[in-house]
Structure formats: C-alpha cells, structure tokens
Q: What sequence folds into this?
C-alpha cells in the first residue's frame, strides 16, 4: 500500500470483525459480530458493499467454501485480511490512539 489513509468507521469495524472471526468470516457472521459488539443495526447490503470496496483496495480477499453438506447446501464467500488490510487497521487504530492520548475521556485506550 503506497498511500495510507484513515479508514472510514464502518470499514474499520468490518476489518476488525474479519480479524476476530478469522477463516470463519463471511457476510452474515460479520454482520452479527458487528451488531453484537456495537449494539447497532447493520444491513447485510452495507456489509457486502463495503467488503467489495475493501477488496478493490486490496485490504481483503475472498475464497469460496465447499457447499454445506446438506441438501441444497450453499457455498459461502469467506473473507480474510490481506497484509495491507492488517497494516491499514494498525494505521487507523494508531491514529485514533494518538488523537485520544491525554484527553479526559473517562477511559483508557487500553480498554481499562
């Protein structure tokens, strides 16, 4: 990645969900992870549109799974972080940490 830019909020949330779920990450699971951790509704359309943009930027890659072993079982499009995706997370989280350092927010960046 030649130029680094701050990720948009939802891009960062989605990349963090991909990081949390690892090889098990796919659209619906990512949506549930974000909703559970942020307590906000997320449309599946927003997930897939953002994943498409992140793929175009080289921050995620996809693999298609084997169909589920049940009648009519469907394949899933699993997502993984690329090295550039991981660096983008580190860059954006680092910026947020530096910007919040020393502010009277009532919490520490380490989560304590």
A:
């Amino acid at each position: 990645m030649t130029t680094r830019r701050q990720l948009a909020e939802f891009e960062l949330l989605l990349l963090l969900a991909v990081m949390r779920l690892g090889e098990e990450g796919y659209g619906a699971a990512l949506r549930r992870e974000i909703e559970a951790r942020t307590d906000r509704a997320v449309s599946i359309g927003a997930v897939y549109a953002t994943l498409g943009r992140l793929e175009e930027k080289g921050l995620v890659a996809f693999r298609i799974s084997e169909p589920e072993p049940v009648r009519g079982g469907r394949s899933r499009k699993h997502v993984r972080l690329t090295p550039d995706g991981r660096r983008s997370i580190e860059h954006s989280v680092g910026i947020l940490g530096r910007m919040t350092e020393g502010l009277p927010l009532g919490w520490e960046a380490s989560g304590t």
Notes: Residues 9-65+76-97 form a domain with the Arc Repressor Mutant, subunit A fold (CATH 1.10.10.10). The chain has one domain: 9-65+76-97. The first strand starts at residue 60 and ends at 64. Residues 60 and 82 are 5 Å apart (CA to CA).
